[in-house]
Design brief:
heterodimer, A: about 240 residues, alpha/beta, 2 domains, eleven-stranded mixed sheet, 3 helices, about 20% strand, B: about 450 residues, TIM Barrel, eight-stranded parallel sheet, two-stranded antiparallel ribbon, 16 helices, globular
């Protein structure tokens, strides 16, 4: 972080374009990041937990946020690579379509909620509802995730290197879950499944993309849908 | 043989008011199937409604406007509170949110065509935006729902306004539902679901809870769209006074209040009939909330749930709404429950005028279906024209009433123009019982 501070202080040719959120309104920063045809690298300093930082990006740019962010950082991201050098609040990378969002610290609840694509990496822990209603995104969490993670997860992959809280994968559809640690409990219609060769390959690829290529994929368990709740039957009443 | 009503009277056969024939059939159906009844439409029970209100036309103490000569304006601007580009609609009757999935492609196209022809807006639903719908809709409101099916920033930016949906009148507190027979390949693909499953949608948004979070969420949507789009907040009518206050506090440009007569494509019958409050009871609560916050007419109020005639439009507006939305009535205008399909309705165990199995996907009129053959029965151009005609009639009827009350614009209608014919309606609408100055509950 020291190098970032120095760069923010004295900009040189080739350095990222800098925005100091203690001096520049968020609206101006986001508007600048929405400029059509945008490219290059950007550094946002002093976010101080601001909400909605770098939302709605749609350009092949690299945006580093130097500090903690509030809700919905990099929300609905497309194409961009957004790095949060700190912790992220609720809904980081919510509804991401493509690109990469990388949180170096921990993330609050609903990380990657409803995201359709791209890669979300959380090096630390993620709180409750990580990957809720995910629709195609890949999420790799370095630590643990809270309860109700992957609730109604429709598609995509969620890798948890630590433990998962209660009701993992409740009412899950077709998303793939990989957990290395303990699972407090599985939600309705979520079951452990066999790790076949294609799953080891898929998991290995995700771990590598997130910088955890040294993990042994055989130490992970795969979870997914039992597909028993795909149609309404009164006999299922007790599981809800 | 089937007894006539007279036969039954002669034989002394008496129907139970508590266990009437519909109730008995419901118990028998539940016992046979073991599953609750899921259907479309809104509440079918009798409720205090706009029919229970009357207008006080002008005479000596008020001047009327000339019916065919003096102008009565109908336009309305929605969303000027924070949005750079508010919607300027030519008429105050909008088309409520209905999804592609619940409705066929031609039905959605027809809604867009009809609305655009008369300069009003139509609305997406729980299932994303289709290119056909965007293409045919001059003003398209994009619903932002808990499921976020098909949600993407590109469509968000293509919309003319964004409606954050917290609930709907037919099922306040309930999530979306679409049964397997309507999850066609295209619908499944748009919603990222396996084809043919019974869709279970969330009733709460996945990344926010409560009004403080909603404030941040609305700001996110504004930042995403560079503060261009009006942001609506839609609630099903329940604790409307509080919900409207919280929606305004969270930053809504427009609040949409949907009463329990508002329709649905698929919801449990018990939910439709027993949760929520009548539209009539909700409107004054919403207006009170807006007025107390000093934003009545600045944050616009759209009212829906049982709007059928220009009289309903005028009454909702007189109570303080800026516009109304129609769903069920719009479908009827397209061709829903048309007697020309009487034989087909009978084959489904229903009848023209009673058909509400929108969940079933076998709509003879080709509206609430994903079956290509049935959907092809609806010509979107003809159906769009019928909807435009109906919207014009609603508008002209409302103007007729407004002129009689001496109003040069529909927005000039006011509660003072109204009386109620029942004590219940007087109490709910907060207007006097006709011929008296009595507003039950006033001053309490």
């Amino acid at each position: 972080m020291d190098s970032m501070t120095r760069r923010a202080g004295a900009q040189r040719p080739g350095d990222p374009t800098q925005f100091d959120l203690s001096a520049t309104p968020l609206r101006d920063v986001n508007a600048a990041l929405h400029t059509p045809g945008l490219s290059g690298e950007f550094l946002i300093t002093n976010p101080a937990g601001a909400h909605n930082v770098a939302v709605g990006l749609d350009a092949p740019v690299r945006v580093q946020i130097d500090g903690h962010v509030g809700y919905y950082a990099a929300g609905m991201n497309k194409q961009a690579e957004v790095i949060v050098d700190g912790n992220a609040g609720t809904g980081v990378a919510e509804n991401m379509m493509s690109g990469t969002v990388w949180v170096k610290g921990n993330a609050s609840q609903s990380a990657g909620a409803t995201a359709h694509g791209g890669l979300l990496v959380i090096e630390g822990d993620a709180a409750a509802r990580c990957g809720i209603s995910m629709k195609g995104v890949d999420i790799v969490v370095g630590g643990n995730v809270g309860h109700m993670s992957a609730f109604m997860a429709q598609s995509g992959r969620l890798v948890i290197r630590g433990d998962a809280g209660e009701a993992l994968g409740d009412s899950i559809y077709e998303a793939h879950l990989y957990v290395r640690g303990d699972v407090a409990s599985l939600g309705a219609d979520c079951i452990a499944k066999e790790m076949r060769a294609e799953h080891h390959e898929e998991l290995g690829r995700l771990l590598k993309a997130a910088g955890f290529e040294d993990d042994d994929t055989s130490t992970y368990t795969r979870y997914g849908s039992a597909r028993q709740l795909y149609h309404f039957h009164s006999e299922n009443t007790s599981v809800y | 043989m089937t007894y006539t009503q007279d036969d039954r009277a002669r034989l002394g056969l008496r129907e139970s008011a508590t266990f009437d024939r519909a109730t008995i059939a419901g118990i028998q159906r539940a016992a046979e199937t073991g599953i609750y009844d899921i259907r479309g439409w809104g509440a079918k029970r009798a409720l205090p409604h706009f029919d229970d209100l009357l207008f006080l036309g002008a005479s000596m103490s008020r001047y009327p406007l000339e019916g065919y000569r003096e102008r009565c304006g109908t336009d309305v601007v929605l969303g000027g509170r924070h949005a750079k580009h508010p919607l300027h609609l030519e008429i105050p009757v909008t088309i409520a949110g209905m999804s592609f999935g619940a409705l066929s492609g031609p039905a959605k196209e027809a809604l867009g065509r009809g609305a655009s022809e008369v300069g009003t807006s139509t609305t997406t639903g729980d299932g994303g935006m289709t290119p056909e719908e965007r293409g045919q809709s001059k003003y398209l409101v994009y619903q932002y729902l808990p499921s976020r099916y098909g949600m993407n920033p590109d469509d968000l930016r293509k919309a003319d306004a964004i409606e954050v949906v917290l609930g709907q009148g037919a099922k306040p507190g309930g999530g979306g539902m679409l049964l397997g027979q309507k999850i066609s390949e295209r619908v499944a693909s748009m919603r990222t679901l396996p084809q043919g499953i019974d869709q279970r949608s969330a009733c709460r948004h996945p990344d926010w809870t409560g009004p403080d979070d909603l404030t941040i969420k609305i700001n996110e949507l504004r930042e995403l769209t560079d503060w261009e789009k009006p942001i609506y907040v839609k609630v099903g009518a329940t604790r409307t006074y509080y919900d409207v206050k919280l929606a305004v506090a969270a930053g809504a440009d427009v609040v949409v209040v949907d009463g329990m007569q508002g329709g649905t494509a698929a919801t449990q019958d018990v939910f439709i009939e027993h949760v929520g409050i009548p539209t009539l009871a909700a409107v004054p609560q919403a207006v009170q909330a807006l007025s107390e916050l000093g934003v009545h007419r600045k944050v616009q109020l759209i009212v829906s749930g049982g709007i059928r005639t220009g009289a309903d439009v005028a009454k909702a507006m007189a109570l303080g709404a800026d516009a109304v939305a129609i769903g069920t009535a719009a479908l009827i205008a397209l061709g829903d429950n048309n007697p020309k399909y009487a034989a087909d309705y009978e084959k489904l165990g229903s009848a023209a005028g009673f058909y509400d199995d929108f969940q079933d996907g076998r709509d003879p009129a080709g509206i609430s279906t994903q079956d290509p053959e049935l959907a092809a029965r609806l010509d979107p151009v003809d159906a769009g024209r019928r909807l435009a005609n109906y919207l014009r009639v609603l508008t002209m009827e409302a103007q007729t009433i407004a002129r009689a009350c001496g109003k040069a614009h529909l927005l000039h209608l006011e509660p003072e123009d109204l009386v109620a014919v029942t004590i219940e309606a007087a109490a709910m609408a907060r207007v006097p019982l006709a011929g008296t100055s009595w507003i039950p509950g006033a001053g309490l």
